[in-house]
Design brief:
Elements (H helix, E strand, L loop, with lengths): L1 H39 L6 H49 L4 H35 L4
Helix pairs in contact: 1-2, 1-3, 2-3
Length: about 140
C-alpha cells in the first residue's frame, strides 16, 4: 500500500512540474537560447565577452530551476518528516504490545493522512511557484 501512496504523490508532483515546464520554464528556455544566439552573433566581442553574455542569458533559467528544486526539496522534507512521525507512532504502538496487523493498519492510515495533507498543499505551492517564476526578470 505504501507504493500506492508514493505513486499518488509522484503523479501529482509530476503533473505540477509538467505544467510549470510547459507554461513557464519552456518560454524561459526559448528566451535563453535566443539571447545566447544573439551573444554569439556579436562578431566584434571577445571570447570572454561572449561567454559573459551567454552566462547572463542563462541566469534567469538557472534561477527558475533553483526555485523549483528548492520548493520540491522542502515539500519532500516535510512529507518525509510526516512519515517518520508515523513510523515513530507505529514503533511506539508495537512496543506497547499491539499486534502487527493493528500496527500496520495504524501506519497505513497515518501515512495516508500525510499523503492527503501534502497533496492538498500542492495547489498553493504551485501558485507560489508560478508567482515566483513570473517575477524573475528576463
Amino acid at each position: 500500500m505504501a507504493e500506492e501512496h508514493q505513486a499518488r504523490v509522484q503523479k501529482t508532483i509530476e503533473d505540477m512540474v509538467q505544467s510549470l515546464e510547459r507554461d513557464h520554464i519552456r518560454k524561459m528556455q526559448g528566451l535563453m537560447f535566443k539571447c545566447s544566439a544573439e551573444c554569439c552573433d556579436r562578431s566584434t566581442d571577445s571570447m570572454s565577452q561572449v561567454h559573459t553574455c551567454i552566462e547572463r542569458c542563462h541566469a534567469p533559467l538557472a534561477q527558475a530551476q533553483g526555485l523549483v528544486t528548492n520548493e520540491l526539496e522542502k515539500f519532500q522534507d516535510r512529507l518525509t518528516r510526516c512519515t517518520m512521525h508515523c513510523n515513530d507512532k507505529a514503533r511506539d504502538l508495537f512496543d506497547s504490545g499491539a499486534k502487527e496487523p493493528a500496527v500496520r493498519a495504524m501506519m497505513e492510515n497515518c501515512v495516508g493522512s500525510c499523503v492527503d495533507d501534502h497533496i492538498n498543499l500542492i495547489p498553493s505551492m504551485t501558485h507560489r511557484l508560478k508567482e515566483n517564476l513570473d517575477s524573475i526578470p528576463q
